[in-house]
Here is the input.
Amino acid sequence: MLPTCDRGSCGSETGWRGGVVGYVLRRLVQMGPMLLGASLLIFLVVRMAPGDPLAAMVDPRMDPQKMEEMRARLCLDCPVLVQYWGWLKEVLRGDLGTSIRFQVPVAELIGARLGPTILLGMAAFGVTYLVGIPLGVLTAVRRHSWLELTVTVLSFAALSMPAFFFGLLLLKLFALGGLRILPSSGMITPGAPYRGAAAMLDVASHLVLPALALGLSGVAGLVRYVRASMVEVLRQDYVRTARAKGLAEKQVIYRHALRNGLIPVVTLVGLTLPDIVGGAILTESIFVWPGVGRLTYTALLERDYPVLMALNLLFAGMVMLGSLAADVGYALVDPRVRYE
Amino acid sequence: MTRQICTAVVIAALLLATGCARPNVSGDGGGPEGGPAVGGALHLSLPAAPKGVFNPVLYEDQYDGAVLDLVFDGLLRLNERLEYVCNLCQSMEISRDSRRLTFRLKPGIRWHDGEPFTAEDVAFTIRTVLHPEYTGVRTGDFSALLGVERMLDQRDALAEQVREGRLSPLRAAELRMAGWETWLKGEGAEAIRVIDPLTISFTTSEPYAPILQSLSIRIIPAHIFRDVPVRQMQRHPATRQPVGTGPYRFVSYRPDQYIELERFLEYHGGEPFIEKIIYRIVNQDIAVGQLLAGELDAVRIRPGDLDLIKNDPNVLVHALPAYGYQYMGLNHDHPVLGQKAVRQALAYGINRQAIVEQLLKGYGKVVSSHLPPVEWAYDPSVLNPYPYDPDKARALLAEAGWKERNQDGILVRAGQPLTFTLKYPAGNRIREAAAQLIQANLKELGIGVELQMMEFATLTRQVFDQRKMDAWLLGWSLGLDPDPAAIFLSDSKWGKVTGWHNPKSDELIRQGVRALSPKDRRPIYTQWIRLINDELPYIFLYSEHDLEAVRTDRVRGLRPDARGALWNITELWIPPDRQ
Here is the structure.
């Protein structure tokens, strides 16, 4: 998939730039049919799950006639492809439909929850990389030390701990049990009349725990990656050369080795995007963070088809963009990679 | 009927003054002069986000309903015996033939926006529900009103013709509107009659007792919705930002986070003390922790949470019987489950007492018939309680010819083994555990039960739409009127699922709604529950108590009863030092 080139045939600096732009454009165009295919697949899978949005309404007070009417109005008994075509026509016209549960336009529903999820995702991302990279480097540099042993043990423990349990543990330690220094759930203090900086601080304090829960779960994997890559780089000839030239160890590690050691990590950045979105479903549910993750969970349980479709497409798009970003990022940091 | 458990109480003085369960408003100290203090915010919880349809005629979601409870009032409310009494009205008069109810409204009631509340609002609310373009689910509640049944039958007939392609949808809509106009001018004028701005009467075709429950619907403001086409009411801003006559004004809803309400100073039932009510959307798994940390003032808990709470002296747990029960539904077309002797053997052979004692930790009761939530409706002493008695179950089975066992220890009659599949939904941990217990109990009798756990939506589809089942576990939650027609009338959607038919039962159900007074209805329902208790169209299992935990160091003035722990919201207050 990644077109690398051998040294002789690579273009000039301007050619390289043009290559990237063209490559990105080509990839973006390809995303169209891919999303279409994904949408059909998702639609089929979602409808294959038994039950429908009305099946949960087992209410003796519910008029059966009315239920039949609703079923007919929502075209729930139509053939699946007819339903898909109906949905697709509306989407191509720019209308994602109306949520069956919430009775408001899907775009509005998701739009209102996208901001919190992006905020949480970015914060978690920050946590993962700010903690993961230094730890990875440290463990690579100080191999076979007590430090490495501690980090290894801890990261394996973290890897094997389910995310929801980790979330509950954080809650117990910092919000509900031991230290009651952080709010336990939500995104803002209910009913508090905060404005400006105070309001931002309020959101920030609510953000700490979910961001830690979501972010730290990725650290363990990242540490292993960074460490492996750094160990590999530190064995290279040019590192030995740098040392032989009498450069300070710090300079060797941070100027020479780290830059090359992080190349595989860049790929990881794009590829962890879907993880963060997936993890958000759990984290947002535990901490009652008002984002798309919670929405996904509710929509799934209630078979809110229009919402599920829109969310899944959004996730599919993010996965595609993530892998594109990984490929492009790779080219930016690794001079050996060229796109035509 | 109501049972309270007092885990503990703050201080001895409070204990003495209140006897744990019924603190009186003025006696618990803490206010400036020892009386109730104004101010503060009460933090309540909702385990899932409301849909945001804050309109009493349109909402379907119970969490929307919880918010509406505080924002809107109905003509009638419940008293501590769960009988309907006047709320927005001063008096209710029932005509001698039990067909006409006349309400005198309380004078001087205002909407949250300051407009006066009148009989027009009441008439408008109910006419909205009956309007042909109404999109909600409550039309059927008022089918007993004069001429409504006929109008609804006409609508059904039109819908049928459209389905068969004999009529265009547009034409059908015109005809529906025409039928509506005719009704409004004819019988409708009598069915809902505004006599003067403070008097309104309703007339039914036949005496129909559940109409009281229907007429307790929360009233919406005519002055806001009058010019809105009924079809568009769902999207109207006032459905998201409601205006009611209840004790609390709606301030805002932050989707997926919280709802803020503010006290309504002109509330007709007296000015509330607590300044704000915040309904927080919580994660059920950590809500108890939030209660203990003081972040929440009241949460619904599960029996398993009681251990966490019992050491906190500031938490009161109020248990009240749920309006409903859990049952094992049976497909009566199944070759063995259709036999009454087998069904009775199942009832004797399942240790339902153990479910209540072990799984519900005693916070529930064994149920042996379809029991309405209100006590006035029946005499429970006529019931056979079907105590756990494996020997009796074996004897019943032997009498019915189930004597031999095959090599697996399963009873066999004429080559047919006594086995069935039990489907149950995932999600309710107590029900999941009950399924295991049922399987183990019945195995001892030689009955083979294959368990199949599935998602709720899958189960309801298989059971209620496709009838692909032998037996299943589910629960019913019931309205306050004892009429069981929706569940047991043999031609109703939910009633026909079992395949059980009994003319006597249908007759009693129909008879039960013709009398309006509890005293006349009681003998009919007593007879009916006895019939159901003997026939066992379902195996009735248990009813859980709802457990509400409230922080007593913050919430004062509590008088918990059958309506819940916080029903007297206008009397509750928070001590100034805890605000």
